[in-house]
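Working notes for the structural subgroup meeting. M.R. asked for a predicted model of this chain before we commit to crystallization trials. I am recording the input and output together here so anyone reviewing the notebook later can reproduce the run.

Input as submitted:
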Amino acid sequence: MLDSQRGDPLPAKRGFRRRRLTAAPLATAALVTLAACSQTASGSTDSKAKDSSPSQSGVGAGSRQAESVGFAVSPLMDSKDVIPGEPLTVKAKDGRLESVSVTTGEGQALGGTLASDGASWTSSRSTEYGTTYTLVARFTDPEGNKKTGKQTVTTLDKDKIFVGTYNVDKGQKVGIALPVSIVFNKPIHDKAAVERKLSVTASPAVEGAWNWLKDRDGKDRIDYRPKEYWKPGTKVKFTMDLVGVENGDLVGTQKREIDFTIGKSVVSTVDVVKKTLTLSENGRIVKSLPVSTGKKTFETWNGTMVVLSKVPSIRMDSSTVGIFGPEAYDMKSVKWDVQLTPSGTYAHAAPWNEGKFGRTNASHGCIGMSTADARWFFGRVNYGDPVTVVKSTDTVAVNNGYGAWNTDWEKWKKGSALA
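Returned structure, recorded in token form:
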């Protein structure tokens, strides 16, 4: 398989996992099933960040209070704009809510449920972006007087919000090399303001640091890694509170708290000269496998990569990484695939190279092995485990997956906007 290493003329679609940090419910990205691995001969480049010129509509209209009301609306930002993509909540300031109706400017109703104690009302579905809602609430004040309050609120436009994706889930167990990584959908103009609202804490405590970089598609990204690999069993808490954070003309709305755990130490080392892959668990060598790595001009990336995903079977098409002509191929079902970079580096079964494992490097950049060995390796490694290639040529880029471990610690710390 091919991993378009330098230049990446047409990189394979990525399968490594991130979670969107929107105000709406989160969903894990699906694994792709089209890939190729290739190493070519020119230098890796970052694509330019796309300019997102935000629309001016929808923000500033704010909440317009038509008359004195005895209720409060949330989630509200700066007492004017409502955060979209969340259920709308109305709470009684004093007294008891009797009924609440919410409609859009087009007259569409936003249904909801009134709490049994009359303290609050919550919509049954989330609000839309850039939409004006009129609320009419009937309530009883503390003196027993029946009153009606009316209020108009407007949700933020999608063009005015910056959001991110993150790569860990609540309660997840991950490998010892996984950094916390966030990719933002729009340029981050005030990196210091954003970084101040991010934190990672661990038990036992670790020394760690954030570092800003560009993702492979040019988007702003920030990664947090400890100085050394996480210790197995470490409890980690990642928090992000960007509600109201200004980023040029954009504003943040996310507030998340994610707890995850570090699993056992599973470390793999690939020696391209010896043509072996050696796997250790908790410091003890478990097994050494004969492999075949990248041939000349398609050498496997040197340095530490991190397991991004696992797929039992995948199609590998060299055209997805710009490989055509005599080196081209299209294999419909390659087995036991462990993804190491979004550009297409995998460890996988390569029965077509039988007889070359441990003897000749004959791949287009991937780490090939027998079907039995690939299945064994597939079953031993997990998301976040490190795979280090030694004695090869060019080192994998920091943004080609999670290449943070190939950067000197002092240099890494300088990538923080608060350094």
